[in-house]
Amino acid sequence: MKQRNLLTTAGIVVFLAGCQTVPLQSTTTPPPKPTATAAEILQKTPQEPQQPELAVTDVWQRVRNQLNLPVPDVKLVDEYRDWYIHNPKHLEQISERAAPFLYLIVDQIEQRHLPMELALLPIVESAFDPYAYSPGAASGLWQFTSPMARHFGLKINWWYDGRRDVPAATKAALDMMQYLYHKTGENWLYAIAAYNTGEGRVLSAVKHNELRGKPTDFWSLSLPKETERYVPQLLALADVVKHADKYGIKLAAIDNQPAVEVVDTGSQIDLALAAKLADIDISELQKLNPGYNRWATAPKGPFKLVLPVDKAQDFEVALATTDPADRLNWLRYEIQPGDSLGLIAKKNQTTVDIIRSVNDIKGNNIVAGKYLLIPVSLQDASDYPLSADNRLLNKQSKGKYKTTYEVQSGDSLWKIARQYQVSVGELASWNGMAAKEALHPGKVLVLWQPKTTRNGAITRTVKYKVRNGDSLARIADKFNVTVSQLQQWNELQQQKYLQPGQVLTLFVDVTASGS
Q1: For the segment 81-109, what is each residue's pLDDT rounded down to a tens digit?
Q2: How far apart are alpha carbons 304 and 269 in whole angstroms?
Q3: What pLDDT shows up at residue 135?
């Protein structure tokens, strides 16, 4: 996984923005021309009607008009150009995916007077997928790592990930590009390379060449292979987009007007209610607001929602007539013996901090029989299809049984994957992690194990009701499984005792079981 050093995440754009060439003044004075009166000139010179400038109606055309970086004739640029030309579906699909956000991105780039090539950065970084997650633990349209995202002002917590909030992440990415441009001596190719690998590596490569009397242009620098390919890919893409007709590339037209509007709700709101007030589906709302991980906006903000531009005004009117107390659904929860704030938070898809804040609890002490007020989702969890939990569920394997594993000191994804005979990639994907991400003791990982564990095995799902006197060891022996398997199948790692009447799930090989 690629960890970008200070200031790396996703960047694309222009070379030294448009070197204007000015014709040299001739040193020879031309012979004087005979003078004529204004009337004579008007008589002799036909007045051509002035052609009105055609309005740009497609955002892609607006982009093409401003792509000015020189595209050199080098091998890697040619290779990437050929790839885009021979895979036209790739850009066609990206054009559809970019439709809600491209106008917003182009507008911000123009306001800052930045190279328009930067608008193509999300294609190189994420294929315009705000849910993209790289092996290097970078996320979002602009592929920020967590440290870099926070450095440029993006919040990341259980409720919200600013890396996937397109308006917020766009601002952060352009802030970063401006920083890199000035940090690297106002050289756009250096800045683009630094977005990928960090300005430290780029400046070190420049200094290395300077000390040896070598050229210091981007193409002469020794950089990581990924970076050496990154800049040529962007320039090749810019060339293909600019000359799309010539190369037979069809980019679906995107209206040159705002497609979305950002509305500040002022406080936390359930996404199901917000979708209802905006008269759109929850899935559509979540696609426009991929930064929200759960069923609501974040309790401490941001409270901004991206809405279709034609729905924003009616939403604001409907929101103004909605009592702020009704923006969330509230559960009056009776504390049970053995409950903890952590357990209650997990049951109700919220956090300990939220429960503490709402109920004015200072520590962790709670009393059985007392009541807590907990904000809960208005609809069933499955009705929020793009929540973090549901996205993970869609990645996880079907036709297998779910187990869990609590990370111990010294564990790594590689070690756990080897123990359970799965790949590191699968394990990381099931848990929404990067393959090289560090683990912390106590973290619970999800694993999906095949139901058939050996040749000839016939596995059946068994529901077993615990009886008086039962223990994990006794039940494990009865069904020819291990205590560890029982704990994993039923998430019992923290539970010391079984309760009569408790129902356990077992995956039993009926060819080997003595039951």
Answers
A1: 999 999 999 998 899 999 999 999 999 99
A2: 10
A3: 65
SS3 content of the chain, % helix, strand, coil (to 5): 45, 10, 45
Determine the 3-state secondary structure of 375 from DSSP.
Answer: strand
Which residue's structure tokens are 């242009």? 217
- Rounded to whole angstroms, the Cα distance separating 377 from 329 reads 6
User: Residue 395's pLDDT band (boundaries 50, 70, 90)?
Assistant: low
Percent of the chain with pLDDT over 90: 49
- Give the pLDDT score at 40: 39
Q: Which amino acid, one-letter code, is at 413?
A: L
What does the pLDDT read at residue 397?
Answer: 52
Type and span of the H or E element at 448 = strand 444-450
The DSSP-derived string for 382-416 is: GG-TTSHHHHHHHHSPSSEEEEEEE--TT--HHHH
Rounded to a whole number of angstroms, the CA Rg of the chain reads 30
Q: Are 159 and 25 in contact (CB under 8 A)?
A: no
Q: Which of 49-58, 71-80, 489-498 has the lowest mean pLDDT?
A: 489-498
> Strand pairing of 503-509 and 400-406?
unpaired
- State both tokens at 203: 């400046």
Q: For residues 165 and 149, give the distance between their C-alpha atoms in angstroms, rounded to a whole number.
A: 11
SS (H, E, C) 10-34: CCCCCCCCCCCCCCCCCCCCCCCCC
Are 292 and 266 spatial neighbours (Cβ–Cβ below 8 Å)? no
Residues in the chain: 515
Cβ 159 vs Cβ 294: under 8 Å: yes
Asked if 435 contacts 135 with a C-beta cutoff of 8 angstroms, the reply is: yes
Do the beta carbons of residue 461 and residue 506 sit within 8 Å? Answer: yes
How many CB atoms are located within 10 Å of the residue 160 CB? 24
Give yes or no for residue 331 having a pLDDT over 50: yes
Q: What is the DSSP string of 179-212?
A: HHHHHTTS-HHHHHHHHHH-HHHHHHHHHHHHHT
| Cβ atoms < 10 Å from Cβ of 320 | 7
Q: Which residue has the tokens 């960047």?
A: 11
| CB-CB neighbours of 245 under 10 Å | 10
Do residues 298 and 268 lie in contact, with contact meaning Cβ atoms separated by under 8 Å? Answer: yes
Dihedral sign from CA coordinates of 261, 266, 268, 269: negative
Q: Active-site residue numbers? A: 125
Q: CA nearest 142: which of 164, 157, 161? A: 164
> Whole-angstrom Cα distance, residue 247 to residue 242?
10
Name the token pair of 309.
């531009």
Instruction: Judge contact between 482 and 473, C-beta under 8 A.
Output: no
pLDDT of 35: 37
DSSP H or E segment with residue 65: none
How far apart are alpha carbons 381 and 383 in whole angstroms?
5
